[in-house]
Amino acid sequence: MQRKWKVVALLAAALSLVSAYAGAEEDFVGWLLNFQRQKNVKPVSDKQYQDECGECHFAYQPGLLPAKSWEALLNADALRKHFGVDAELDNDTLKVIHDYAVDNAADKSWHKRSRKIAVATEEGPAPLRITELRYISRKHHDIPEKMIKGNKGVKSLSFCDKCHTQAADGVYDMDTVAIPNYPGWDD
Ligand code: HEC
Ligand code: HEC
Q1: How many CB atoms lie within 10 A of CB 58?
Q2: Low-confidence spans in the chain with pLDDT less than 70
Q3: Are 68 and 17 within 8 A, CB to CB?
Q4: Using one digit for the tens of pLDDT, what is the confidence trace for 137-165?
Q5: Are 115 and 109 in contact (CB under 8 A)?
Q6: Cα–Cα distance between 100 and 88 in angstroms, integer?
Q7: Number of domains in the chain
Q8: Could you tell me which residues come within 8 angstroms of residue 54 by beta carbon, excluding any fewer than 6 positions away?
Q9: Which residue puts its alpha carbon closest to atom 35 of ligand 2?
Q10: Are residues 127 and 143 in the same domain?
């Protein structure tokens, strides 16, 4: 009788150890996933923003520009002459999109690349292009023009997702880049 209880007690102790370990492991995995995510840029989570701003080019994550840039870009006047095209929105949609972009701008984010953009744009006028940010232009400085403008599969550095295969997830790491028509670009 006594021996049987000892076995039960041992089993119970072992079980609680296993579950404590499993819990710790889950925390570790969560931390790791979160760390990966924080490294990059927060993916777009607003459907209206995704639909309206993903029509002519991929929907840039708000975390790629500071709030002052979104203020300058996302108003009725500016959208009517948006980089040479008319991207006008009705007032209700504009408000949703404006607020979403400003609330998730680089200077409101803890994601690593957004932090860098926020710090680099703290001073000075609001940049209107992501491609003009020094942090971004510096990263692309060495890519020959024939692989961008002269490349039918890309056309402009503004089309991030042509080369960054996980751009829609906010991932811009070097090991996820593939330049269309130039499979051996990094040789
Ligand atoms: C009617 C088409 C159209 C729509 C809709 C549109 N855009 Fe654009 N957008 C453009 C064009 C064209 C460019 C310039 C691309 C180039 O220079 O190659 C551009 C460029 C941009 C750039 C600068 C990219 C760079 O070069 O760094 C940002 C930021 C931008 N758009 C944000 C938005 C947002 C936010 C929305 C949603 C409100 C939006 N766009 C909707 C056509 C559009
Ligand atoms: C013509 C293809 C191409 C386009 C278009 C492009 N990129 Fe890149 N990008 C690259 C390449 C290639 C690299 C890696 C450069 C190197 O080897 O140092 C890179 C590097 C980067 C990096 C640094 C990655 C790291 O791990 O340090 C960021 C961030 C980035 N790009 C963001 C963007 C954004 C945002 C856009 C759109 C506004 C964009 N890129 C458009 C090809 C492209």
Answers
A1: 17
A2: 1, 11, 14-38
A3: no
A4: 999 999 999 999 999 999 999 999 999 99
A5: yes
A6: 17
A7: 2
A8: 44
A9: 160
A10: yes
Amino acid sitting at position 17: L
Q: Are residues 23 and 91 in the same domain?
A: no
- Residue 58 · residue 168 · CB < 8 Å: yes
Q: The whole model's pTM is what?
A: 0.86
CA 156 to ligand 1: nearest atom: 18
Describe the crossing of helices 2-39 and 112-120 by its angle, rounded to 10 degrees: 30
165 CA from centroid of ligand 2 (Å): 10
Do residues 66 and 129 both lie within one domain? yes
- Tell whether ligand 2 has an atom less than 6 A from the beta carbon of residue 41: no
Measured CA angle at 91 (ends 102, 69), to 5 deg: 25
Q: Report the half-sphere exposure of 71 (CA within 13 A, side-chain side).
A: 8
- Asked if 86 and 143 sit in the same domain, the reply is yes
pLDDT of 21: 58
Instruction: Identify the pLDDT of residue 7.
Output: 75
Q: Which two tokens stand for residue 144?
A: 């020959």
